[in-house]
Protein 1
Amino acid sequence: MTVKVEMGGEVSPKSKKNLEEEEDERGNWGNQCEFFLSCLGFAVGFGNVWRFPYLCYKNGGAVFLIPYIVMLMCAGLPIFFMELALGQYGSLGPNLIFPEIAPFFGGLGWAMVMISALVSIYYNIIMAWAVFYTFASFSSVLPWSHCNNNFNSDGCYTEEAQMVCTNKSMLYFNNMCLRINHFCGIGNYVEFNETHCMDPNNTNIIKPANEMFKRISASEDYFKNRMLEVTDRTWDDMGSMRWELVGCLALSWLIVAACLAKGVKSSGKVVYFTALFPYVVLIILFIRGITLEGAMRGIEFYIMKPDISKLWELEVWSDAATQIFYSLGSSFGGLITLASYNKFKNNCMRDAILIAFANCSTSVFAGFVIFSILGFLATELGVEVGDVVSSGSGLAFIVYPAAVTRMPFPPLWALLFFLMLITLGLDSQFTMVETVVTAILDQWKHLRAHKMKVVFGTCGVLFILGLTMCLQGGILMFELFNGWSAGISVIICAILEIIVISYVYGIDKFIRHITDDMGIYMPRPLKTYWYTTWSVVTPGVLLVILALSMYNISPAAWGDYIYEDHIQILAWFVCISSVAIIPICTCWVVWKGDVKWNNLWKHTENFCPAQERNARGRGSTGGAKADVFRYTHDNEGFVKEPAEIYPTLQEEKPPLYNNGIDIWGYYSNHM
């Protein structure tokens, strides 16, 4: 009689229980909807509301959608799906998954984590501003609707107050109506005529009266002189701490920490509100916006005057590529992190396609909302829509607040808008902070038992790092981080990421993991699309984006204030602080010598599904073996049907082997 021993991959009930406990320890999504909404919330952020509409108006209206969709298909969607598939397959955060794919590029994941940390510092400042405005909205008269506040500067004005003075043939200044001679005298000029002032020391210098003093709208005055108190601040004089902003920032971080206290198990429940509430508000604002006088002027200005000639301008394509890339949040490490908590068989390809197009649709819809309100504002002021168009924080905290003051029940519309901004920011902030926390817990697994302490500790450190942005001159630091923490560095990470997956690891193997291992059905046209984009199109587009970004780079600045030379050095330090981790980690791996040179470019055995990796880890550390012995016999009279499987657990009884046969297991069950 001969006995053949086969090593199988099944596990005993006790081993399975241990694997499930480890999965629970790391955390998993409660259901697929939580993952979908978290990814959607991460992708849909401030830029969808305050940047895309401006780019669409600037780059030819509806024509801009052509390069936008082309760049979505060539760069945005391919890398978005790649990151979801990568995280789901390995069930690891970015800091651990890249060392397993190719040790030479092990620092790539930590670079992504660093980018998320840097962005989360200034991102929560925007949240703090929104919280500040939310509290201010609980007032019957919005404080940015007039110039009668103690903080208002002399140049503060409103169109209504100015019109009152104009009807009296007088000029408005410092909340008063002045005759031309008094008005000119404030600037040590004399009256030249009813509309001009003259320098008495040089009669050749004549200025229009409306250019004598710098004017500032009531909403801009509130933003700069009430909330920020930034007037006349420079890098050499950053002023004192704005304790009200510190309180708002602390509240913002407390909300983030509380929602992430139990990882995805808690944040997955919160996203049902934070991801869907912005859509409810956008729909309400849209319905209200299109009923306002002048709304169609704004919408027509936004998208209904296509300029085909814009398609031949390189800047338009550059804007489209940059917007779609940053809007989807690729190469921040967040998508890999979110997908790492997925079930192994989840159809992440379907999710990637739906989320990417939902994100783009949200941007277009938000444009209708914003421009309907800007059209109303332009009509009220008697100016062209182009005169009130803005982007970035200027749109959210200056232009829109000015518009709501002219609506019925202004506090209601202000409150809705700023609550929407808070929820838009929360989803993105959840993912970036979760990326940092996951990196810490994956790297040092013993800290998983103290997850809540790690979350609050991480949020506390990031809060402290953001305090410089709460100084009176803090917006100078904010703009430095806003422009330099995730610009060129993210593009570099994206290029390296797609090269590592497509060329170092192998695009064929990666696609097999998706289709064969994870069981995701991929029709031939889609497989051809992914193969073509991952191997050729997306790397090429990213290289072009990088080249254009480097070519169009401008000095760090805030408005017309160009930062000093030593601050420019600081800006570059912030920029390269993340990508510098990549060569540092490479040098460390080479210096340690744990990995042979020819293996630095090869994946390790730990780049595999989590269950396989965990089972192998237990076998090597003296835990319960996941493998079993399967006995087959050539003596038909001796065979029991069906064949029995005998788990061997090291901690229960050490087996005695003789030429590969478990003697104890064999004789105790067959003699």
Protein 2
Amino acid sequence: GALLVSERIDREELCGAVSPCSLSFEIVVENPLELYSGVVEIQDINDNDPVFPSNQARLEIGESVASGVRFPLESAQDPDVGINSLQTYQLSANPHFVLDVQTRGDGSKYAELVLEKELDREEQRELHLVLTALDGGSPPRSASVQIHIDVVDANDNAPVFNHSTYKARVRENTPSGALVARISAYDLDDGPNGDIVYSFSSHTPAKVRELFALDSATGELRVKGQLDYEETKLYEIYLQAKDKGAVPGVSHCKVVVEVVDVNDNAPEVTVTSVYSPVPEDAAPGTVVALLSVTDLDSGDNGLLLVQVSDVNDNAPKSLQDSYDVYVPENNAAGIPILNVSATDPDLGPNSHLSYVLLQGDPAVGRLFSINRENGTLCLLASLDHEDQVKFSMTVQVQDSGSPPLSTNLSISVFVTDLNDNAPAVLYPRPNATSSYGDVVAPGTPAGHMVTKVVAVDADAGYNAWISYTLLQATDPSLFSIGLHSGEIFTARQLREDEAPQHTLVILLKDHGESALSASVTVSISVAETVKEALIDLTDVAPAHDPRRHVTFYLILAVILVSAAFFITMVSVGIFKCYKWRQSKELFNSSRSTLYRTPGPFHHIDAVRGGFTPPSFYHQVYLTTDSRQSDLLCKKPFTSTPLGSRQNTMRNGEPGLYHQIVGTASRLPTPAE
């Protein structure tokens, strides 16, 4: 009954990387019949050195690479297992790099070179390091590789992966050429420095390279060999993206491929012992044969099970029911602004989700789109805060079951304001053709408000806050302007000898970053009386007035009406005298007749021409019964303190009286 070794045992040849390594056998003892099972475990000894794929490695590292950047190194392989396998790496002493030893999911070790101190090409063009791999035997076995590092100028933008880790599930019977995952990286550089080439990282095991293929241009990872769940259940594939610059920028990512078991192994029935022939008088319960059933598949595939099919009884779920997104205006078209994510606990097609943007507001369908597969919401056009501040939309997440189930998610997109609108002047109108300006009287004290510049900014918040500055003036010491109100004040008291016309240039500027500005010109006249104002305005009247013919006919009409009025007044006077002589009582009663006050005198032609402000007006008072007509003329009504004074003239300044009456566009009728 002794069990002997018939030939030399090599654990690495029998089991490879599988641990523990065991050989099973069965012993049958007859008469009485008994069955014994035995297992021989082959223990590993440290009889293999770690081995690097090559004895020298070369790296190109740009001097602009920041500290903390990792550089994967080629991994050593040790066919021993357990403590005798590869345990750690050591790096020769140097001032720039340290070594970080990582452990994969299967327990194997790999090393990454970490930049601790930034390189300086002008100080040192190249570095020579030694990487040593050690196993855990006693004494330990080792292997070394020379690392030559060239310090060169690298691209200032390395490729960047969309995800640091990609996950994929692949059935073990997936045919060669099937897509496993698609990795994607982008590079902000232009030309060759922005062209990306995908490849396996240097420490990717050879077995992985035999089973998977990577498209260097598209980043598509496809099945190359035959996968076997019973051999390996999980693969960690390390990939890199490198641009085509003179000093290529490199970034790394990891693809975790989970091999899904399929029922590709039939149960095996083994007949251990058979009694044949069976005696006809064999008693019930007599053992006829010993049978054992095994199945190499795992889990449910290894049992004789009743499978429960999935029913689409779960609607898609999201971590949140609504999303708020803030997007600055004037954005570039085509940029992603949100990734809507949802999950479905069902299986197969019942868990495959699609994302649809429900049509409501027509502007939403015109400006937004969503990726049906991954739920990425993108902008199709540039947004304007001044046009619309908020967009509301609904995204429907639906599975592929029959019938399909769906969930609606609310999304609100808020457009934030940028300073893209300059202040716009409302008053005074920048394109006005009238020569009329604001009027202030001599003697006006300091601090009196003359006029106000009114402006608006279509932006919002701080970008719409306008400040006013006096940029240029005929007399800078005479006027000032409120910084935020736009009100123009007298800075000192006006003297009698001030210039009759003043021009102010006002600068309007908002408070946004990269402030925008506008300017406006304000004209201010210094005049005390209507006559002075009219004379000044006449001097600045255009030489070629297209309405001069109309004015001539108006003056002619006024003369004719005045003559008719004069004749009427004389006739009324004669009639009144006649009545006075007839009746003394009528004469006495007529002396007590009250004065009647007609309405305001209509604007003169200068007002109609746009030269005199509407605040200038005159009133004429006539008695209903008197031997002479009395004229009462008031000074112009202005907004200045001096404008409140009124000077009543009776039979005074006949020249001014005739001037006013002669240029009036309308005179009172005899009845008025």
Protein 3
Amino acid sequence: MATSPCSSSGVSSSSSSGLGADAGLEIRTRSVEQTLVPLVSQITTLINHKDKPKRSDKTLQAIQRVGQAVNLAVGRFVTVGEAIANENHELKEEMSVACIEARRAGETIAQLTDVASLDHPESDSHITIFTDKTGVVKAARLLLSSVTKVLVLADRIVIKQIITSRNKVLATMEQLEKVSSFQEFVQIFSQFGNEMVEFAHLTGDRQNDLKDEKKKARMAASRAVLEKCTMMLLTASKTCLRHPDCESARINKDGVFHRMRIALEQVIEIVTDSRPNGENEMAPISIYSGIKEFKNKVEGLRENLYFLSKENLSTMLEVILEHTEDFTDSAYTSHEHREHILELSKQAKMELEQLVSVWMQAQNQKTKDLMEDLEVAILKTCQCMNELKREVHSAATSLAADLLKYHTDHMVLKALKITGVEGNLEAVAEYTCKLSEQKEQLVEMCRLLRHVSGTEPLEITCIHAEDTFQVTGPQIISAAETLALHPSSKIAKENLEVFCEAWESQLSDMSMLLREINDVFEGRRGEKRVYLSLPRPGKHNANLKALKPVKLDTEEQAKIAKLGLELHLLTADVDSETEKWEDQENEIVQHGQGMSSMAYSMYLFTRGEGLLKTTQDLFHQAEIFATEGTKLASALHPFSDQVHDNDKPLVLLEAEKLISMCKQLQITAKTSVQGKSATFTKVDACIFKTRNVMTLLCQLLPLCCKLLRKNKAGNGCLKPAPPWREDRAPTGANARAAERRAETLGIKALENHVANMTFLESK
């Protein structure tokens, strides 16, 4: 059984995360963690009351009601857990044991809190929460660990669904690789598209649920690869079918399939938290992270002169300076930057020597003068490292800015398309060499940017960009060679276009990434994320005719600029309001932050920037935004049970407003339109309605925060838990029930039996 979050003095309200101390019960997702919060809160209340000297009748009755509510909740919770066990035989034994333990603990808590009818609850003749003070702690420990185990086991079902979905995608990909006729390809690709949509939904939900930001970034990168490769797989396969004897077409197609398989495997590694052959993941070491750790150690000498050795500090600096060689050895680093980096590296060694000298003296004789000298040495060492950090940042970002500006015209890609259509093999060979040179420049740019990215998610984005340029460059070359060999082939021309678009898209993403890196360096918030999904609705259909992506032109961007700016300001307001909440893991805060992130990406779209490239991307983002808003509105219902009765109608009224506005936005986003004018009108309406939702959110967040604080500062009396809903699993053999079974018997069903529990305040 897992180590309990309980201690002899009580249960911490945030202790659910502490259960991760047991590797078998490590909580990796927000949904599991947040499901435990109400239960922890109830148990905290009970344990905090076992030592209270003053016990009124009202308090005793409330304690009994809370104990009974916990027992009833656990009973229904266990019923769902047992249903999951029956549906999933491989988990049955573990799940059954956890359910039995949870039920037993719930019953024990109900018995120990049966105090309302007793004249003297402290009497030894009846064992209660007051007479058996360790008993309630033991029961709480068993309850929390067993409930957590049930939740983690239920979470395995979600993982199993993702693995099953991946396996279906892989099996269909194998069929696609072997097809020899267009008719067969059309049929199988249609099935493949549906399977990719299912995989997209499952992995998208998982990405947003992950607690680890690094894993989130890796998942986003892998899903982005799958999104782009889906279209590449379509055109590359069609080209191969049209020109079966063309070696360059086969190489082009094989490259796409290989990359998709790697991306699919990476998703499973993240979901299952495993590496092939038991390998440990090697975290990329950047100059920024090295300097940060080095400075922390140096500054730690103020508190403790003996917590590390001088050899340890010297080794850390050596590693940092080795990484600066990536800059000084690069052919693309300017002479001025190279000289400054070498000079600062030399100075850093000298400052460390001086620091070590004073440090060793201070260890032997802790005089006032020596401690002052040590403080000066610490400050000078840290200042030198800051200057080194600033210099490598300047070197990397200035190179990136220059390269991105130089390559914005895409002259090499345009030349490849023209010479390919002309069938000019010699000219194609000349421009493929130029593209290879460009690829090397961009790969080097990504490597240097990784060193100065500032956060682990941005480091991973840099690595993803480097991989994309490394792989896409040769694929463009093979596509161009195929077109040059078959200059009249429409499908070969379309295939080259798709790979060139992927290259252009990555260059555009690099501009955005560069802005985010600069934001982090300058202390501005640079962590806005776009919720990715793949493949986008309508992008591929059964007859293999891709929809033409539509972008806003300059005039349309100008028209919508004011609305976009208002949206930008509202995202800043929402971010400000969410930061005021003490509990950043609160479900309302989480949904609010997600909506702000998506609204920010929609604002960037109005400027022609960001990861939303086409109007179709925007409409899809608006749908996801509306769904997130509906989830927030749903979270307001259990929240309303926490506030005073007079305030409850106000919260529910705001929830209804939000639901109505999100439904209107979803209807607008899903409405089909034809023509440029109608499309722009739809864009305008989506941005306008998103702005309205964000305006409501700006009012709603401070209201909820205020009511929560008001409730905490109230009279302190225990408030009984509300009646439990009977959330029964649907039965019957109809198709709809079958489709919903996974969700009903997954972790969501278990959440329903815990999430309604009232947050109770200690008296």
Protein 4
Amino acid sequence: QIFNQHNAEAPNLEQAFHRMAQMEPNLDHDVSWFLLPSYWAKMVVALISFLCFANSYDGDFVFDDSEAIINNKDLRAETPLGDLWYHDFWGSKLSSNTSHKSYRPLTVLTFRMNYLLAGGFYPVGFHVINIILHCTISVLMVDVFSILLGGLQFSNKGRRLNLAPKSSLLAALLFAVHPVHTECVAGIVGRADLLCALFFLLSFLGYCKAFRENKEGHTFSVFWVLVSVVLGAIAMLCKEQGITILGLNAVFDALVINKINLLELIRKLLYKDKSLENVGLLRKGLLFRITLLMCGGASILYIRWRIMGTGPPAFTEVDNPASFADSLFVRAINYNYYYSLNAWLLLCPWWLCFDWSMGCIPLIKSVSDWRIIALAALWFCLIGLICQALCSEDSHKRRILTLGLGFLIIPFLPASNLFFRVGFVVAERVIYLPSIGYCILFTYGFSLLSKQAKKKKILAVAVLGILLINVMRCALRSSQWRSEEQLFRSALSVCPLNAKVHYNVGKNLADKGNQSAAIKYYREAVRLNPKYVHAMNNLGNILKERNELHEAEELLSLAVQIQPDFAAAWMNLGIVQNSLKRFEEAEQSYWTAIKHRKKYPDCYYNLGRLYADLNRHIDALNAWRNATVLKPEHSLAWNNMIILLDNTGNLAQAEAVGREALELIPNDHSLMFSLANVLGKSQKYKESEALFLKAIKANPNAASYHGNLAVLYHRWGNLDLAKKHYEVSLKLDPMAPGTKENYNLLRRKLEQLQKKGG
């Protein structure tokens, strides 16, 4: 009977506990917003976050996706899984001087799984995973914001209470629909930020679980503290920012669990007050937990440092010009200006760009520059918020402002240039996590306005309007990320001074065959950045193809003068010099390219062509053989070897090379065609016929294939089949050299045979 009575009273005890918790200051008292059960709140957040980015699901691989996914050998099955732990995000060895040291093996592992499950590079699966990740993170935000805004309270059954359901829903919606997140969700390489954020939040929620009182009555669980450290390590293996969660867990512990007044603590430390225990520093195991977090963080960083190597990442001035400024004043002013731009993107995410480097944001070099106002405004706001967070008599206000500032600033520190140089000026992806702090501050500001406002519904409608505008902006920006053409063109109005934007638009046009338009954008890129060697190289290539050889030579010569180790420009310069019949200079350029890039199969191929033009046949064959050793699937090099050996009468050697090539590239119809020609000359008619027919099946519209098969039949004595294929060849190409003459010979022979038969 006593047992039954206890069970009957348990729900009442839980309700009483909830009422006691709600007696504390609470944002929801002032917020005029929707109140939904937790399950429905999460469903709404998931649905809206999905609607924002759903139209990106069938987008292409764009921008950095090419290097991180398509050209990344770590995604392919033949690459050992163990290599992922020694390579950077782009598939380069971490020990390489050219590595950016971005160590994200778990992110690359998910790309590899996508690739293997899809059976190739099909972007839909990659995009769908990104959208699901963002929806999952947005749903988790409901729980995270309920803790950050409402505090951490558990019922007598150990169930966490949501003391700010309205505020947490609003903050989660703000996070879910923020347009600045588009790069992370619609750009596949943004998965690094998404995975990092997922384990970042799980680490935080795991740390909160440590304070649920267990059956033994312990005030905290060491197990869950250690779990949070492990999850923080996993977050860092997805992206470097993940390590910052350990610092935020310590801040949360001090402010929410131990309710430390930072200003009071600072005063007592300064005056060496012996009553520090009363502040809460040593109570409830805080010092022990912070020691665990610090030891875990230090161990993670040490292991990361050992794997990465001691050398810093290699960046150039165009990546981050402020970090290369000689003056400390110029560096400090510009770094702070970059911070203000990041803050502005959170406040007004209307002008978004895939890349903010290369002149997009000119350096501030003097205090007379009007942009100084932006960083002054940033620090005015930050100092105001910090003063309120430290000095306010309202403990609830102090806690929320400090947590908001903590989540805004601490995850941003790795991208701040304070500890090491980063390879960008502004990057929208790096404010995915700091936007948590922005959402906390926005929601708190809304609660203050609601408290003062007489017409709270108008204020709520205004916030709904902001959310709706953000949803539409997300949808629009997602559609721009669907293809490179739309993405690059969208940046022209945002960053018209960015040489890389013009370069990428030009490259996209060139890839589509619109060379005239591409030249215009490449020229503009070079005008904006006269040292932009990649734009010079690409422009030189197009001019070379248009036979504007002298201007192409000038551009490529300037490119290698600016960057002497630019192997691709040296090779292209060699091609131009070869076309200008300056063979010695061309040979020197090719060897210079190979000196700077030892494994350069295309350069060996072009060197072989040069030697063939000079009738240096042995040198040509050696160069092409080097190309095929470095790149066994180099079809052009194999083909040239077969043709050269054929033309010089080395039919047996040509046949051996042809068979070797087809073993490596069995479906290459051009190799089938070349080997078929050799076999025909060796009177191996049956095998030659089979290869010709196979080549024609793969490429039925090649006039030369039909013409040479006709010649084979002509030699073989199959005159009717020869006549048939001569006619097909002439139909495909009436001007095919030699075919018409051979056809006329065959017709005369057939006429003679008919006369004899008659």
